[in-house]
Design a protein that fits this description.
Helices cover about 30% and strands about 25% of the residues. By secondary structure, it is α+β, with helices and mostly antiparallel strands. It has three domains: about 60 residues, no CATH class; about 90 residues, PDZ domain (Pdz3 Domain), CATH 2.30.42; about 200 residues, Alpha-Beta Complex (2-enoyl-CoA Hydratase, Chain A, domain 1). The strands form five sheets. The protein has a six-stranded mixed sheet, with helices on both faces. Strands 1, 13, 14, 17 and 18 form a five-stranded antiparallel sheet that branches. Helix 9 runs parallel beside helix 10. It starts with a helix and ends with a helix.
């Protein structure tokens, strides 16, 4: 063998080994066919410089349909939905997700106020599946789940790296069925196993009562689409009562509709004041959401209760009242859910829930991840509650009585 032929053979061996074991090059393609991009080794730029386009998905589907060993068991819809989910995962944003048609329907039922499951709002915090808030008097709350609990396993399924939407789907389920959560809780040396029987979840919206003769205590647990009308009825009752000051309890309120939070805020501040700033970046002008209510309770002294279960729209309301009125926040640091999601419907009934902006308080404070710090910090644990009662509420009563 001459030197020239030896050199060519060496190059071929290097190229073949460089492709890695397990690949068959050119087999079953016919005498004039080559694997795309691999047929011409003389111009390497032809292999590596082409940019992917949407047709790449079509090519991938074609390869799977023609080559995959179990291709008869593959559903094309599942492949397309998987591709959509994969695109959203690349954003590395836990709140931007693809929802298949059935999941879209479920999501819309959730924000409407009634669904089946355990009754807990969950999110991702520091890379871990975390309970934002158990909804009052629902299965998770009755079983002892607490805001801030880390969910390590769901029926034995490890949640590490599990996308938020998938976690929601395996936790929820039909009424009467049970699910076991393995919980890591601050202050507990060992993990907790909590069994919860799913039920129809009725999201509590607003409750109020008088504390003494002067204080209207309003517990606001969610910002659903029915909340503005419910709150208006409560305001009318308060205005006709002897109460002349307010405690607004936003503890374990996981949020809801942005527009609802803006509406509620309008009862406490003057018209045409900034409630929240929507920052979209990329040179897009910030959008200002302005109060438009009748300010019927603007003159009432008010304090607000918050904790790590206060998130999203409840943080907007608390932030706006503190910035505009100097309202004192009492309790614990809020969750820090300061981003805006939009649900975009697609042609087949599926949807994309995508983060489009971040929320800033009227003074420009971002609440994403950091949350709102209380002006008066009052820790509350189960042990404290069992021994001393609701010390956060007691502090709020003390403060509002002095206003």
């Amino acid at each position: 063998m001459n030197k020239r032929n030896s050199g060519l053979l060496f190059i071929f061996i290097v190229l073949a080994l460089g492709l890695g074991g397990g690949f068959i090059i050119g087999r079953s393609l016919g005498s004039n066919q080559t694997v795309s991009g691999m047929g011409d080794f003389t111009d390497v730029s032809k292999i590596f410089t082409k940019k992917p386009t949407i047709k790449l998905i079509e090519e991938g589907l074609d390869v799977i349909a023609k080559k995959y060993v179990d291709r008869d068991n593959i559903n094309r819809d599942d492949l397309l939905y998987g591709a959509m989910s994969g695109m959203l995962k690349v954003l590395e944003d836990d709140y931007s997700v693809f929802l298949e048609p059935e999941d879209t329907k479920t999501f819309e039922e959730d924000v409407g106020g009634s669904f089946e499951g355990i009754g807990a709002e969950i999110g991702i915090r520091d890379g871990m599946l975390t309970v934002i808030s158990p909804l009052k008097d629902n299965p998770a709350d009755r079983a002892g789940v607490k805001a801030g609990d880390k969910i390590l396993y769901v029926d034995g399924t490890d949640t590490d790296g599990l996308p938020l939407d998938e976690a929601v789907q395996i936790i929820r389920g039909r009424k009467g069925s049970a699910v076991v959560l393995t919980i890591e809780r601050e202050g507990e040396e060992e993990n907790l196993e909590i069994s919860i029987v799913r039920d129809t979840i009725k999201i509590p919206i607003i409750e109020w009562e008088k504390k003494g003769d002067e204080i209207a205590y309003i517990a606001f647990s969610h910002f659903t689409e029915t909340a503005p009308g419910d709150f208006e009825n409560i305001v009318q009752e308060i205005l006709q009562s002897s109460a002349d000051r307010v405690i607004l309890d936003l503890r374990n309120n996981p949020g809801g509709f942005l527009e609802v939070a803006v509406d509620i805020t309008g009862w406490f501040i003057e018209k045409d004041k900034v409630v929240v700033i929507e920052e979209r970046g990329h040179g897009v002008k910030n959008k200002l959401y302005m109060s438009s209510g009748n300010s019927a309770m603007a003159e009432y002294p008010i304090v607000i209760l918050i904790n790590k279960g206060s998130a999203s729209a409840s943080e907007i309301l608390a932030g706006a009242l503190r910035d505009h009125k100097g309202v004192v926040l009492i309790g614990e640091n809020t969750f820090g859910k300061g981003s805006v999601q939009e649900l975009v419907h697609l042609r087949d009934g599926s949807s994309i829930k995508i983060t489009i902006a971040k929320w800033l308080t009227p003074d420009g404070l971002s609440i994403e991840e950091n949350g709102l710090e209380p002006d008066i910090a009052v820790e509350m644990t189960q042990e404290i509650f069992d021994k001393q009662g609701d010390v956060q509420l007691e502090k709020a009563i003390e403060v509002v009585e002095g206003l």
